[in-house]
Each structure stands twice: as structure tokens, then as C-alpha cells.
Amino acid sequence: MGGYGFTVPVLRLGDVLLVTLQGELHDGMAEQLQHDITSRIAQSRVTGVVIDISGVDIVDSFLGRVLAEIAAGAGLLAARTVLAGMRPAVAITLVELGLTLPGLRTALDVERAMELLAGDPRDGERSP
């Protein structure tokens, strides 16, 4: 993706795409990832996306917006998105930045995210 010399892996596990973010995700890579995920959802007709951020130390406002946009795009394509593995420091930073990440459900780890997607589509949704 882009000219950065490596790609973000997007794996298909049944009806779910698993995206594992590691380290810093540069702006161009984040935008390319957003495009790649929505394209894969449309092509493969998956019903869920798990974004594992356990390897991410910092989520800035740009990456937070990209994650929310990925979830919004996935939702328009009838796929649910779960953010897995958020570190406490990342959660605190998101709150401090005022980022609510609409459309994203969260899970402590990938296993729980997969369980959430396998359950009732309304599970984990926040009330308006």
C-alpha cells in the first residue's frame, strides 16, 4: 500500500475480515487501508470486520477518524465493525481528544470480537 514498503494484512476468516494494525500507521497507509477494506467487503460480501489495534500505541485524531470512516463504510455495505485490543492508554487518549468512534463496537481481544460478530447483530450496539 502506498510507497511505504509493507502492507497492512487483511485476512478473511469465514464471513469476517481481520485487520491487524501494528505500530504507527502513516496517513497515506490509513487512507489506502480504508479503500482496501471497503473494496474487500464489497467483493467478498463479508458481514463483519475486526480491526485489531493491540499493537498500536497511539491513536491520533486522524487515525480515529479513519477508523470511524471504515466502520461507516462497512455499515453502508451491511458489515459490522468491531475494534479489538484497545490499550488503556489509547482509550484515555481517545476520550481526551473527544473521539467517540461512532459505528464502532469494541471488544477486549480478537476472540471476543469474533464472538460478538457471531452473536445477535444488535449485541453490543449503543442506544441512541
Automatic annotation (TrEMBL):
<dbReference type="Pfam" id="PF01740">
    <property type="entry name" value="STAS"/>
</dbReference>
<dbReference type="InterPro" id="IPR036513">
    <property type="entry name" value="STAS_dom_sf"/>
</dbReference>
<dbReference type="InterPro" id="IPR002645">
    <property type="entry name" value="STAS_dom"/>
</dbReference>
<dbReference type="InterPro" id="IPR051932">
    <property type="entry name" value="Bact_StressResp_Reg"/>
</dbReference>
<protein>
    <submittedName>
        <fullName>STAS domain-containing protein</fullName>
    </submittedName>
</protein>
<feature type="domain" description="STAS">
    <location>
        <begin position="6"/>
        <end position="117"/>
    </location>
</feature>
